[in-house]
Amino acid sequence: MSAPRQAAVAAGLCPGRRSARSLPLAARIGGIVCAVALVGCQTTPAPIFPAISPPIVWPPPPDQPRIRYIGELRGEASLGAKPTGWAAFQQFLTGPRPQGVFVRPSAVATTGERVFVADTGLGIVHLLDLAERRYAVIQGSPTEHFRVPIDLAIVGQQLLVVDRGRAAVDIFDLEGNWRSTHRCPELTAPVAIAWEEARRLYWLADAATHACFATADLEHVQQQLGQRGNEPGQFNYPTALAVHPLIGLIVADAMNFRIQVFDDAGRLVTAFGQKGDAAGDFARPRAVAADSKGHIYVVDNQFENVQVFDRTGRLLLAFGQGGDKPGELALPAGITIDAQDRIWIADSYNRRVQVFQYLPEAPT
């Protein structure tokens, strides 16, 4: 050993050839904890939806864009959260834990920056808090796990989950804590739910009876709408519902290849669509939603796109196509539009949720 290094070792400034194992146990643990603490300390995380340049919009230039692509979620990793403190220490010792991923997302519900995703592939509901970068799994009630959680709705401070496999609707708080389970004897295959604020009623669509039902308590039917058939006001596999104060009750009448709209008295207001491959036609209308201006969005599971109509059924535009790139879809299954007019689509076979933004018409 050189003289300068011997002097440094003697002064305690250099460990010489001592290995970490020769250090006292407390010193070794302290070093690990310090290292983990440094790893756990992180700068501001990257945005969940980074800016897209050039922007992806519909219709494309030079037309004025009305829909803009924002980004996607694929599960827990999309939150970009890194473990800190004790969690970081545990992962330092044992390696990273598996993260939750979407397998077959079927429906989306949002409130603020909290996103709930029903996953029929896993039989769970994913909870992603975009503001807190927090992820959790909702599996069902303490005694009954979900079988086929197929649709979601948020009413006030409650999350409602329609489970077709159990013919039930489960209610949770927004933290994912179970509160109650409800069943209507008239419904044996519920597939969709919507909330009518004006009359404080839940609407449920049932695939077995080919009808829609209104209920105040999710256990006693107050109004039945429709039966199997192809006449106006009848249904053939209703798959989705939406209620909008400017429009009424919107029903995706899947195997009649149309959308039907009803007022609060159950009267048919309008119906539009037919089987075909022209603009405005449908192959398999799977989900519906409406934005703040009263535009009706129809997700077509087979065309793998979204068509946007005014409340009379006039086609305004379409966006999306088959594929796995940003803005492309593979058997999309669900849609919701939040208070900011962000459009959330359950892109089922791409195992993701895609997010778009409605862009209002620029003032003239």
Task: Give the helices and strands, then pairings.
Elements: H1 3-10, H2 25-40, E1 57-58, E2 67-73, H3 85-94, E3 105-111, E4 114-119, E5 124-129, E6 134-138, E7 149-155, E8 158-163, E9 168-173, E10 178-182, E11 190-196, E12 201-206, E13 211-215, E14 221-225, E15 238-244, E16 248-253, E17 258-262, E18 268-272, E19 285-290, E20 296-300, E21 305-309, E22 315-319, E23 334-337, E24 342-347, E25 352-358
Helix content: under 10%
Strand order of the largest sheet: 1-2-25-24-23
Write down the secondary-structure element order.
Answer: HHEEHEEEEEEEEEEEEEEEEEEEEEEE
The CATH top-level class label of the largest domain = Mainly Beta
Mean pLDDT: 89
Describe this structure in words.
- The chain is mostly beta strands.
- It has 2 domains: 3-40, no CATH class; 57-358, Neuraminidase.
- Helix content is 9%, strand content 39%.
- A hairpin with a 4-residue loop joins strand 5 (124-129) and strand 6.
- The longest helix has 16 residues, at 25-40.
- The protein starts with a helix and ends in a 6-residue tail after the last strand.
- Mean pLDDT is 89; it is low at 4-20.
